[in-house]
């Protein structure tokens, strides 16, 4: 019996034995499909939702378009289905489970509840507020589906930034083959023992270094590495930090790379608005003597960064090599106007760089104000800026993007929305000695909800159209311990 069938049997067993006694606020499936919004019509997409194969059970709607089934009549062809289901009756105000009727609307002007389906609702609370869970059953026919929420969908090409609560344009992350200048969009972390360096693959077979790089497979190809030396001791670490990543929710997001060597390579992810990082992959504890392809899956709700960390082993001959780091199409980065902090001694501090026209550049500090700094820190998810005398000048090749920035209020959502010089135009007195650096304080309070729902394969998948996946439905089973 394969693993999937075992998992399905376990899930079904618990559905039948435990579900009647567990709290649906704690144990429910998750439906994250923005297209269920009453603001989304079938015309918005050629894909239609149908719930005929939905397993009966408790569900929570988690999409950015809203988590509640509408309580007033919804017209046919809304909610990305032909027969939308709305809820007749009010949401419960107490903690009891209440019976309600979901109404399928076939378009009869005299009856908005042509097809009634019994459902139940429970009000739940969590630190961030109130939400509702619904006990749903499959629909009788297709295409008929439960509506959820009423907010508009993000336009094509944009994804929802759950942290800032708005849709953002995105761009592909630049792949890094280490052939050009520097480390592409990756930054060296300063708060570690080593930096990664680059070399070309012209080393002899007796060297600890690989003879060829991975990209070109020639002596002129380059890769990144760390290695032991008199000053590079066992256990020393070097970290590369990725640009800020948002996941598209339509494709899977992976980071791909090739590595070899005798030290340890680890991959972490870190919420962009927090300092906690979590391990998502580590290399096996053996010497790897050929370029080895690695794919690391990245699942994260809010914008995040990937950290690739090499650690030198204990034998004094240790080295780690890295080449061709890229992200899958489900990962993207924010477009023009995004900001980052570079070269700082800690997270939340450093030289301010703004992304514009495919390039990161600095801001000249002429007439810079505390309010401007607050906007930068707020855009990055911190509370405010604190005074700092530390400067982190950029290398000379870095462009100066902005000058004369003036934010009228700290409530402006991003620095590029403040008044400023034309992009790339600045006073002759501006040079990198005048780059703006900031230190931010106070992580945002919403950082605590970054993670995790246990996700298992669906006992029977919801009927989804072919092609792109426009969301997800996850069944979160009760804990396994009561029966084992
Ligand atoms: Ca470093
Ligand atoms: Ca290369």
TrEMBL record:
Query: Per the record's keyword annotation, is Translocase included, yes or no?
Result: no
Q: Where is the MAM domain?
A: 174-333
Tell me which residues make up the SRCR domain.
339-441
Top-rank taxon: Eukaryota
Q: Which PROSITE patterns match?
A: MAM_2, SRCR_1, SRCR_2
Give a GO cellular-component term: membrane
Q: Which SUPFAM superfamilies would you find in this protein's record? A: Concanavalin A-like lectins/glucanases, SRCR-like
Keyword Signal on entry: yes
> Residue span of the signal peptide, if any?
1-20
| UniProt keyword list | Disulfide bond, Signal
Read off the Pfam families from this record: D8C_UMOD (PF23283), MAM (PF00629), SRCR (PF00530)
Q: What is this protein called?
A: MALRD1 protein
Query: Which organism encodes this protein?
Result: Branchiostoma lanceolatum
